[in-house]
Amino acid sequence: MNSNYQLILASNSPRRQELLKESGFIFETFTLEIDESYPSSMPAIEVAQFLSEKKNRVYRGHFNEEIVITADTVVVFNDLILEKPNDGAHAMEMLRLLSGQAHSVITAVTISNDLKSISFQEETMVTFRVLLPKEIAYYVNNFKPFD
Question: Active-site residue 114, yes or no?
């Protein structure tokens, strides 16, 4: 389905890889350790796109004619970005916080070749019903939601 360009997905995300495969794309994955910091004064709504573009600029330095896709997703609750949980206890704490509440999930994507770069983002409002402690524990223990 691709053109003459090689497609590079700059992500370890199994879900992003699955989405591209299901869409019929042929691609390779390539990842680097990238500083994902952003200005503390930046509005939360702008962070995902800022990071997606930042990642893409770094990856562009490793490729010439290839098409590079980078992305970033942030969870925003009460105008604060909830960082990825680093362990089960942190994941359970986040789910207890979000239980019975609404929050935003913002994903930004940047696609570039050696001549051009485009970025876009989508925001989805998510509302959790009240989650029971045993449901939270089951989810964290069985699905390891650390990404």
Answer: no
